[in-house]
Amino acid sequence: MEKKNKNAKKVIVFVLKIIVFIFLCVFYARLISFFGHYTDSITFGEYKYIGIIILVTVCVGFIVSLAFALFKKSSKTKKIVTSLICAALIVLVIPIVNLAERICAIPYTEFSTEGWNNSTTDNLRQYMIPDLEEKYKIVGMRLEDVYSLIGEGTEETSTDGSHEITYDIGTFGVWHNTYVLEYDKNGIVTKTYTRPK
Fold first, then answer.
1. Which of 40, 54, 91, 175 gets the highest tally of CB atoms within 10 A of its CB?
2. First to last CA, the chain
3. For 119-141, what is each residue's pLDDT tens digit?
4. What share of the chain is helix, strand, coil (3-state, %, to 5)?
5. Positive/negative CA dihedral, 6, 12, 18, 21
6. How many CB atoms lie under 10 A from the CB of residue 88?
7. Angle of helix 48-71 relative to helix 2-37, nearest 10 degrees?
8. In angstroms, rounded to a whole number, what is the distance separating the alpha carbons of residues 170 and 40?
9. For 144, how many CA atoms within 13 A lie in the half-sphere containing its CB?
10. Which of 84, 79, 78, 25 is nearest to 56 (CA)?
11. Looking at the domain covering 109-196, what would its CATH class be?
12. Rounded Cα gap, residues 150 and 114, in angstroms
């Protein structure tokens, strides 16, 4: 009878380990997919496969570490180390996705008028803004020069009465941003910034 109870406990523990393993694997895969989906360079970029390879490799590393931590009969030290690796991969998911995004965004970091106005990469414009502002010193530029450089945006008047031109950047939806150029009555750009739509 005691042997049956011991075997039953082992089976229950094993089944619980399998449930925990499946839950954590699905959780981690969803976590990576959630953050990876909202990075434009990984979702839409020409080199998105690099980002996908990075994210899949990290996910597989997590699954293997978790499997060793839960199922491999090994010393307590090895179990602790593999558990720490799993915890580190959970904690580092955002920096890892950020790194993958930066790698995939490299081709879009140099501004060009053609690249900015390309309808297939218009959701990757946010990566060009630092280069655009550094090369062309947008603040102080006349509106006509801005239009010839990046096209005509959407004219708006903000709640404080200032005049703005906005350009859509990034994915539409929750994470959508706009690039805003404020200008004075003489048509000179006085301020630039990005804001959520």
1. 40
2. 67
3. 777 778 888 999 999 999 999 99
4. 65, 15, 25
5. negative
6. 12
7. 160
8. 7
9. 1
10. 25
11. alpha beta
12. 9
Q: How far apart are CA 122 and CA 107, in angstroms?
A: 13
Sort strands 154-157 and 177-183 into parallel, antiparallel or unpaired.
Answer: unpaired
Task: Identify the three-state secondary structure at position 112.
Answer: coil
| pLDDT tens sequence across 27-74 | 888 877 777 666 777 777 788 888 888 888 888 888 888 888 888 787
Dihedrals phi, psi of 92, to nearest 5 degrees: -90, 10
Total residues found in the chain within this entry? 197
Radius of gyration, alpha carbons of the chain? 25
- Cross-strand bridge partners of residue 178: 168, 195
The DSSP string of 38-59 is T-HHHHHSTTHHHHHHHHHHHH
Contact 69, 81 (CB under 8 A): no
pLDDT beyond 90 at 142: yes
Tokens in use for 82?
Answer: 């593999």
Domain boundaries, the chain: 2-107, 109-196
63 vs 47: CA distance, rounded Å = 25
Any residues with CB less than 8 A from the CB of 151 and at least 6 apart, and which? 116, 117, 167
CB 50 within 8 A of CB 104: yes
